[in-house]
Write a structure and sequence with these properties.
The protein has 416 residues and is α+β, with helices and mostly antiparallel strands. It has 2 domains: 2-52 and 281-414, no CATH class; 66-269, no CATH class. The protein contains 13 helices and 13 strands. The chain has a 6-stranded mixed β-barrel. A 3-stranded antiparallel β-sheet has the order 2-11-10. Strand 7 (182-185) and strand 8 (188-196) form a beta hairpin. The radius of gyration is 34 Å and the shape is elongated.
């Protein structure tokens, strides 16, 4: 019986090809949009995650916390970070090589850099030779800082891409000749030993100049010490062995610093821990919200398509009233007529959704080919599209089908 109903439903579609196509148009657009949006949304989220991994997801940044926190409150500037905090964490890194791979300080000061007649405001960062092990620094030309630079307080600096571009131009090959030249930073000469390649993103080094901590403290910028606590740190970066260890590392760093800074058990931290996964979760949430919104719009399109199917099925019932009367006169039950028209509505929805899915696969493949982004088809989207289409077919086809099933045979045969 089911096979016969399916055959009759598709015979009806073939008998009115153009009208069936127009009826399915809303379902085609809705199903295609749903599959395409979910597929592309997943691909974009994957691309964002890969960029975060490339830029350094295996690191934690310790930054100053809420100045109102009750930490080492008997010392001026307790809400800030100092060399004492760095030394405590440096020992932690040495004790847990299974968890941490490196530690690097960041002392950041806004200052002026000048090359000839060109001057710009930039960020000067005092750090150590271990910085590349914590934060990605792909070198375009030259080298990064070394322990020898730190030990001697060498007047050397490494330029981020934007700084090098603004001071010397955009030709990356011409920038090779910049290595060895001298620029002024805060009125003091430093030799350029390296240029970092462009690496935009939330952890970009593009707008910075890097120099050894000792050089920054003794030769370039004065008055960087906290009273009674030594050198002030803008942040302390800790590199992890694996991004899977973020939660364990955060808990260990928090316990260590709270103990070292005498933070009472009932007080909030007077420091802050920042992980790339926090920003990643925010971006993923935004991407999911946008994808979900477009998916809802696609679902509305499917509902509109279902209304179109209901409209056409009502017309079909009117056009085929005599056929219904003949079938009932020959012994067809109300259930037989109901099943016939519901099956036709389901067939319209399913065929429309299948066409939409095929179109979506083609669109996703085309975008993947043109953009170079590896894009996979969302099987969840396909299942949702087909399931939703079936539900719509049954839901919007039931009323016309029931109306047809309840027609009295004699009145249906008399209908002109």
């Amino acid at each position: 019986m089911l096979t016969e109903l399916i055959a009759m439903a598709f015979d009806s579609l073939r008998a009115n090809k153009f009208r069936s196509l127009l009826t399915m148009l809303g379902v085609i657009i809705g199903a295609g949009t749903l599959v395409a949006v979910l597929s592309l949304g997943n691909a974009l989220q994957g691309q964002v995650f890969e960029q975060f991994v490339d830029l350094g997801t295996r690191r934690i940044a310790v930054t100053p916390g809420d100045p109102r926190a009750k930490g080492a409150r008997d010392v001026p500037g307790y809400g800030l970070l100092s060399i004492q905090d760095f030394q405590v964490l440096n020992q932690l890194v040495a004790d847990r090589p299974d968890l941490f791979r490196a530690i690097a300080p960041e002392i950041t000061v806004s200052t002026q850099a000048r090359a000839g007649t060109v001057a710009l405001q930039t960020l000067l960062v005092g750090t150590s030779a271990d910085y590349p092990q914590v934060q990605r620094t792909p070198m375009l030309h030259g080298r990064f800082l070394t322990p020898a630079d730190e030990a001697t307080g060498a007047r050397v600096g490494v330029l981020g891409w934007l700084v090098a571009r603004d001071l010397f131009g955009t030709d990356k090959e011409a920038l090779r000749n910049v290595i060895g030249q001298t620029i002024e930073v805060n009125g003091q000469p430093i030799e350029i030993i390296g240029i970092i390649n462009e690496n935009g993103g939330p952890f970009s080094t593009d707008g910075r100049i890097f120099t050894p901590v000792s050089t920054m403290r003794l030769r370039l910028i004065g008055d960087l010490d906290l009273p009674g606590r030594g050198l002030q740190m803008s942040s302390i970066l800790l590199g992890l062995q694996s991004e899977q260890q973020v939660n364990e590392a955060v808990a260990l760093i928090e316990r260590t610093l709270r103990a070292a800074r005498n933070v009472p058990a009932d007080a909030i931290n007077d420091f802050d821990l920042q992980t790339p996964t926090q920003a990643l979760n925010v971006l993923a949430g935004i991407s999911t919200a946008i994808t979900g919104f477009i998916a809802v719009v696609a679902g509305i399109s499917l509902v509109v398509g279902g209304i179109g199917i209901m409209n056409i099925m009502l017309v079909a019932v009117t056009e085929r009233t005599r056929e219904i009367g003949v079938r009932k006169a020959l012994g067809a039950s109300d259930g037989d007529v109901l099943g016939q028209f519901v099956m036709e509505a389901v067939a319209l929805s399913l065929v429309g959704s299948i066409i939409g899915v095929i179109g979506a696969i083609g669109i996703v493949w085309l975008i993947s080919t043109v953009s170079g982004i590896a894009t996979g088809i969302s099987w969840i989207g396909i299942v949702l599209a087909l399931t939703f289409a079936s539900v719509i077919g049954i839901g919007f086809g039931y009323y016309p089908a029931r109306r047809a099933a309840l027609l009295p045979p004699i009145e249906a045969l008399r209908y002109e």
